[in-house]
Each structure stands twice: as structure tokens, then as C-alpha cells.
Design brief:
The protein is an alpha+beta fold and 66 residues long. It has one helix and five strands.
């Protein structure tokens, strides 16, 4: 039973990791968003940077330093 509780704990932490802001891989701007509200569930996700015009599936996920 301990193994299942540990696994559940890890999964909960993984789900929360999406709360960190994203940044553009080209210019580092945080002004980046999905290109369409249908991205992820209907079409492959595409991000667009308002700063440099980057468009693609790759973004940087920023994390707080300890």
C-alpha cells in the first residue's frame, strides 16, 4: 500500500508542474500563448510568441530557484 501512496504523491507533484510560466525558446519572452483554443485536444499544440513571432510546438517552462 505504501508504494501506491508514493506513486500518487509523485503524480500529484507532476500535475502541478504545469503551473510554472512558459517562455519563448527564441527570445525568452513570457508573452507566449497557444495559437488556437482548439490546440491540444483537436490539433497539435502550436505556441506563438507576441514578441518575436516564433511559432512552434516547443516552449521553455520556467521554474523558481530554491
Amino acid at each position: 500500500m505504501g508504494f501506491l501512496m508514493d506513486l500518487l504523491s509523485v503524480l500529484r507533484k507532476t500535475r502541478r508542474s504545469g503551473s510554472f510560466p512558459f517562455a519563448c525558446p527564441r527570445c525568452g519572452s513570457q508573452k507566449i500563448h497557444l495559437s488556437s483554443r482548439f490546440d491540444i485536444w483537436l490539433t497539435p499544440e502550436q505556441y506563438v510568441c507576441e514578441n518575436c513571432g516564433y511559432m512552434g510546438p516547443i516552449v521553455l517552462q520556467l521554474e523558481k530557484e530554491n
